[in-house]
Amino acid sequence: MAKMKANESGKIMKRIVVIGCSGSGKSTFSRKLQQLTGNPLHHLDKLFWLPDWELRSDAEQDRIQKELVKDEKWIIDGNYQRSLPIRLERADTVFFFDYPRRLCLYRAMKRVLMNRKRTRPDMGEGCPERFDWEFMQFIWNFNKNNRPGLIASLDQAPDGITVQHFRSPREAANYLRALDEQKEEAA
Question: pLDDT digit of tens for each residue in the chain (187 aa)?
């Protein structure tokens, strides 16, 4: 992960990718980041899942992303590792949530309990929150099965992308706090 470095002070973020394990807090962070930057926010889960948990085809997912990244400013929240290069080609900033699996699993289970039978705002319509054993296994095995591919994609990303690598929720919270303070000082 040679390219991973902290955001340079004062750098304006226009095209932002937020990735990491499910349950890490990507969507919550993305919403707060949207409030601070004013960039339009797109949750891939909301765009890719059709009612009754039917996933759009790969071709449709790619088409949607290619349209989104044409815009000058955006925040795109979600992994979908297969198509991550589409986002990285235009991104200037990546936030990588790299948390322990126990924390992500705990947060995902808490989310299921808090939102049971309701569709979250960052999820596709008609996809109410539910317990899904296969999804919990995906989270448990994420660092072994998916993390290496994310890191490889980041290593192969175009030059000039700033990658903020969060290893704990405190790091993410501190980043947002500093960004908020920076925004207040500039006002």
Answer: 434 333 444 578 999 999 999 999 999 999 999 999 999 999 999 999 999 999 999 999 999 999 999 999 999 999 999 999 999 999 999 999 999 999 999 999 999 999 988 889 899 999 999 999 999 999 999 999 999 999 999 999 988 999 999 999 999 999 999 999 988 887 7
Would you list the DSSP string of 36-55? HH---EEEHHHHHEEGGGEE
Strands 49-50 and 54-55: antiparallel
Distance from the first to the final alpha carbon of the chain: 35
Going along the chain from its start, the domains and CATH numbers come out as: 15-182 (3.40.50.300)
Phi/psi of residue 25, nearest 5 degrees: 105, 20
Indicate yes or no: pTM above 0.70. yes
**Which residue type, as a one-letter code, is found at position 150?**
L
Q: Cα separations (Å) of 110 from 5, 24, 46, 174?
A: 31, 12, 20, 23
